[in-house]
Amino acid sequence: MAGYLNDSGSARLERSCGDWMRIAPSTPGIERIEACFGGHGYDPHRHDVYAIGITLRGVQSFRYRGVAERCLVGEMFVLHPDELHDGSAGTADGFRYRGLYIAPELVRAALGGRAALPFRRAPVSTDRRLAAAILPALDDLGRPMDELLRDQVVLELAEALAADTFSMPSPHWRAVARARDMIEAHLQARSGDRPQPLCAGAAFPRLPRHQSLSLSADAAPRSCTRPDTARPAACRSSVCQRLRRSGPHDTAFP
Q1: Is-above-0.70 flag for pTM?
Q2: Closest listed residue to residue 7, CA positions, set 130, 114, 105, 138
Q3: CATH number of the domain at 2-168, out of 3.20.20.70, 3.80.10.10, 2.60.120.10, 1.10.10.10?
Q4: Looking at the predicted structure, is the pLDDT value of residue 66 above 60?
């Protein structure tokens, strides 16, 4: 499956800069990245979005829900919102992957507003239906996703997740949604339009620390990469905003 992806430029980047991360143009509710690490990648942290991707090279090792997992070349990973996980290379050769982060609100809406979000027991998959859903979004990270592709990816991904899932009970999801909106409104009222500085190195200590990031509390989509030890006021910022940094190792898409 990895062979289906547009791989232009990646080999050059691996030879020239070691650990690196590239950030694709974002679209509402979805963010996409490609990353390569020679050893340790991520300390334990959480997202409040689905993190779904495919290993392109090497062995991606991570702990998820207290279990050590390995994702091989061509295999996909599905990490659910607010589940603690880390990441590192499973061999001395390092690993490279592409991934997308999708807001759970989009998944719920695509499934007709059902109460419980889909939850897959196994975080590593070779499901062809899941691959068909995510590969169009990950094929050309240099190109923004248009609205038609975005809607297609969301719908097919939601259906793929729902087809192989067991439901986590969520009897009070409407109350949880209202509480989330109230917290976000409170953060926005406190910060206004002023950006909140946040250090990117907390969850990603191996990446260069050249500057703090300017994040707005009401940034969209509502996603967060945070260490397990703290939930900063700006945690509703986008995954890619938390990762964006300056320096010679940073490679952004044009």
Answers
A1: no
A2: 138
A3: 2.60.120.10
A4: yes
